[in-house]
Amino acid sequence: PSLSPFCHAFDFICCGLCCHGNGVFIWWRRRRQRRFRQRRYRQATRTRQEGQRTSSGAGTSGNAAASGASATAASGPAGRAGGVGDASAAGALRAPAKCEGYLFKRRRFPLKGWHKRWYVCDKGFFYYAKSANEMKTLGRYHGNIDLGNSFISYKRSRRRIHIDAGSIVHHVRCKRNEDFEMWIGQLNCHRTYRHLQLQNQPPSGTGNPQFAAA
């Protein structure tokens, strides 16, 4: 009976310490989640700004190429004829050189990490396969991206390139800085070429008399 007050006091102290420990843990977890959200927001803002700078540079080169193509079409007889000038300009576009090599593709599921893949950039399209032999010998690839309808951004410090195709975002990484600069230039050239090709392409319903009448 004489020890009962001490036992009650000990139980009270233990309960207080447990509650205080739970409160500290909850505060630490919320603080960690808040810092994680802030870090992701800063990374997204930085990536968006770099992508805007990339798209503005590609748009400037695309406008220059478009003005050159229109001047070429206007100087020829097809350009003076009127309606055939756009088709001749589309045919006069010169495709950039084919670019191929190994890059590291980011994968989340089931094997999370960076996996080595063979990439080919040809006529405005971006293909990839597991190996060069699989694409060259078997003619098989695992995916392709239309660069004309994609948004390209990059992170130079980590040598990463992000290609947003609308339905999927493709993340690739280069091993060396020289490869990174080369792939950035080639992707911008192929994207501009494909974009101009889509602009100069006539509508699909032009040959329909109902479409023409409308």
Automatic annotation (TrEMBL):
Annotated segments matching region Disordered: 38-72
Which Gene Ontology terms describe the biological processes this protein takes part in?
lipid transport
Query: Which branch of life, at top level?
Result: Eukaryota
Q: Where is the composition biased (Low complexity)?
A: 54-72
Ranges where the PH domain occurs: 96-192
What family does this chain come from, according to its entry? Belongs to the OSBP family.
Q: What is this protein called?
A: PH domain-containing protein
Q: Which organism is it from?
A: Macrostomum lignano
The organism's lineage is: Eukaryota, Metazoa, Spiralia, Lophotrochozoa, Platyhelminthes
